[in-house]
Amino acid sequence: MTYIIGISAFYHDSAAALLSNGKILAAAEEERFTRKKHDNSFPFSSINYCLAQAGIDINDVKYVTYYEKPLKKFDRITQMFLDTYPFSYIPFWQSFPSLITDKLNVKSIIRNKLKFKGKILFIPHHEAHAASCFLVSPFKKSAILTVDGVGEWQTTGLYLGIGNEIIPLKQINFPNSLGLLYSTFTAFLGFRVNEDEYKIMGLSAYGKPKYYDDFLKLIKLNNDGSFALDMNYFSFRENFKMWNDKVEKIFGKPRKPDEKITKRHADIAASLQKITEEIYFKILNHLYSITKVRNLCLAGGVALNAVANGKIHQETPFKKVFTQGAAGDNGAALGAAYFTWNFIMNQKRNYIQKDLNFGPIHSNKQIEDFLNSTNADYEYLNDKELIKKVARLLTSDKVIGWFQGKMEFGPRALGSRSILASPKPKWMKDRVNEIKRREAFRPFAGSILQEKVHEYFEVPETNHYSPFMIFAFKVKKEKAKDIQAVTHADRTCRIQTVNKKDNGIYYHLIKKFDEINGIPLILNTSFNLKGEPIVCKPEEAYDDFLKTDMDNLVLGNFLL
Questions:
Q1: Which domains does the chain have, with CATH numbers?
Q2: What is the average per-residue pLDDT within 470-486?
Q3: Facing residues of 400 across strands?
Q4: Helix H or strand E segment including 97
Q5: What is the pTM of this model?
């Protein structure tokens, strides 16, 4: 066996992934173990989990691979300091200790703290992103687009994937960044950078793009999708505040985090989403023009923009689109490992990713021991009984905490660590948002039987396959009344298709719900409260259950 560990760390969503002869044995984000949301520390806990899952020691591993080139990143940071001095003096020296002790010291950490004696490789950041989607895709040949805030210097990458090869075609470099544009206005609207960008996407449905022309003042956009930010409006190179006073003269005062959200805020979000989509589709159309390949793979934080992704089939010539669910820096750990296995080692591709269940699993015995230690009142049900009872609870509008099997890798709960509810009553959206302590405007996703997805959504093909909750599609008008709780203000819904082969008991639960209600879909949101990572252990699920007005909790085969 050849074992490879991929690592991402020190920016956000640190993670580790372990391959064995090209197959994923384990992968997890550090936040799930430390309980610090978006934890960016070195992923010791994730690495230890991966090794334990495989039953191996660190020196059974042939390669440890890191998801970027630290020296190149340091070069960009120091150049940015020199270009913007003296304005950047204070932010630079405040961040300097972590640069020296962590970000430039990765090799030493791996050698001295992990006690690893094998080979260490550093993979360029955007190549790691590209590998994370293409090398686990069903395509032998594909166009590839990576878009995020910034790697070393690169912010956008256009590639052609053929077999084991990822061929660079074009790139856009810092400070011109679609991800940083989106993050700037995430902060401007009072939300947290590298954490709340998806909230802006949700908020955009409530506004009109009235500020679209104003956004065009900030960006020089070319027909091929290449663009340049006008740095007279941005200060993220030299300041922790990402914009300057010129932006406030155009868009008004920034929103404070605890301030009420107004129509102006929603209109800014809608305008930002519109300009983002315009740039995104121009890049994608140009990518098609230089590759002439109708398959597309997507990665990077911007590839999590489900609203934009749902329009790719309409706005571009691409016919088949694949993005694995951990499209951000967490997934780049996986990409670094696959780049090593398939490209550097030139091993044949032998894996297509169909799920994200790579995290810890807890047996019924472990769950029962925990429940007995808390004197909890519970009922044991076999699979068939459990499916029938939970489907009936959902039918009676109960909200269910659902904890099954291996924890998901990435930001989406896909039926292993989920909170479930009926999609039918409109008020259910408000109830689940209250349970999760989220903003009222936040939408929910729907898990739907794959064989019936085309009956409810305007998808590009019958039995459309979308397992990772990365695409939002229009709800068919005649079906909107049946799934009001997951139909957003713009009549879209972020979907997860579920099938018998890949989704096991979760598929059978939705199937039973369909038999009872005639609706092949349930509301699915991640099992966590605001500010928390998704639950990893039964103890964490139980704790959240007790803190909230959730009606029932399922832990394995136990119903509370």
A1: 3-136+326-344 (3.30.420.40), 173-322 (3.30.420.40), 364-559 (3.90.870.20)
A2: 97
A3: 420, 552
A4: helix 89-98
A5: 0.96
